[in-house]
Amino acid sequence: MPPETPPPEIDCSGVSKRFDGGTEAVRDVDLTIAAGQTTALVGPSGCGKSTLLRMVAGLEDPSAGTIEIAGAPPSETLQQAGLSIAFQDPSLLPWRSVRGNIELALSLARRPVSDSEINQLIALVGLNGFADARPAELSGGMRQRAAIARALATQPGLLLLDEPFGAVDELTRRQLAQDLPRIWEARGTTTLLVTHSVSEAVALSDRVIVLTPRPARVAADIVIDLPRPRPEGIGRSDDALELVERVFAELTEAMAAEDTPLAAQ
Ligand code: ADP
Ligand code: MG
Fold first, then answer.
1. Is residue 119 part of a domain?
2. Domain membership flag for residue 146
3. 249 in Cβ contact with 82 (< 8 Å)
4. Distance CA 77, CA 73 (A)
5. Predicted structure pTM score
6. In which region does residue 22 sit, left (phi positive, over 0), alpha (psi from -120 to 50) or beta (all else)?
7. Cis before residue 112, ω within 30 degrees of 0?
8. Are 176 and 148 in contact (CB under 8 A)?
9. Is it the case that residue 262 has pLDDT exceeding 60?
10. What CATH number is attached to the domain comprising 11?
11. Which end of the chain is least crowded, N or C, by CB within 10 Å?
12. What is the DSSP string of 146-177?
């Protein structure tokens, strides 16, 4: 199903973030993300990935530089329900069921609530039979999957995913890695994905941005020229494995340049 508005391009120009306490999380990031592409951000933990994503989501303001989504400030896109975000720590409303959480997202976005669409999304993330369960009745991985379904429900032009598979078991993770690209390919969604899994970044993305240790700067920008739609098992192909090695090499170099122990990842 095509989105109501075309997917947006994201343009970050000289974006920096220093928090009030003095922590500098992001420094001078220039990045243009083409409409309809999936881009992965990888980097050592604590380097500033989530901060960058939150700024793109309009949840945090840069302390320097500008971010534009289809030429508008992110807060505008957020207000118009043009973007969805799923965090590692899913912020589901505890008193609402999985279905209720998805329905709320739809009504906040002023989108019609279609039961069959909601059922499809719930099935897609493997939560069949749990539509009426409340978050407390679900495992951490199931809550994350519910948050992904909620993020997809409004059919946003821009989808921001912050380590959304962290607590998801491996089998489901593999299934999601197979199914999610189909959705954003079909809808032409612009997707920005933070992940600590390099192989996942390669399997899912058109482009992998390697960030330095904090403050995050762009260390490398790697085009993932694997075929679309991604055939099943592409992540285990020689081409994909070669790209995974390249990303690791860039990460290692970025970390060595900072003289930071590799164990920090
Ligand atoms: P990552 O997602 O790459 O693990 P984050 O973007 O969450 O990293 O954090 C980058 C740095 O910014 C960390 O040192 C973190 O403690 C700090 N930080 C994140 N959010 C805030 C905040 N709201 N106030 C102060 N410091 C923050
Ligand atoms: Mg993070």
1. no
2. no
3. no
4. 7
5. 0.91
6. left
7. no
8. yes
9. no
10. 3.40.50.300
11. N
12. HHHHHHHHT--SEEEEESTTTTS-HHHHHHHH
Type of residue at 145: R
Residue 93 falls within a domain, yes or no? no
* Closest by CA position to 145, among listed 171, 111, 122: 122
pLDDT in the model for residue 4: 56
- CA of 248 from ligand 2 middle (Å) equals 19
Nearest CA to ligand 1 atom 15: 46
> In angstroms, rounded to a whole number, what is the distance separating the alpha carbons of residues 233 and 67?
36
**Ligand 1: residue whose CA is nearest its atom 5:** 48
Q: Is the pLDDT of residue 174 over 80?
A: yes
User: Within 13 Å, how many C-alpha atoms sit on residue 45's CB side?
Assistant: 8
**Closest C-alpha residue for ligand 1 atom 14:** 46
List the domain range (segments joined by +) for residue 264: 1-82+160-167+191-265
Supply the mean pLDDT for the chain: 90
Positive or negative, the Cα torsion across 62, 66, 69, 73? positive
On whether residue 175 sits in a domain, the answer given is no
* Residue 57 · residue 160 · CB < 8 Å: yes
Please count the structural domains in the chain: 1
3-state secondary structure of 109: coil
> 53 near 160, Cβ under 8 Å?
yes
Other Cβ atoms within 10 Å of 242 Cβ, number? 10
Q: Residues of the chain with pLDDT > 90: what percent?
A: 62
Asked if the model's pLDDT at residue 264 lies above 70, the reply is: no
Task: Kindly state if the Cβ of 150 falls inside 6 Å of ligand 1.
Answer: no
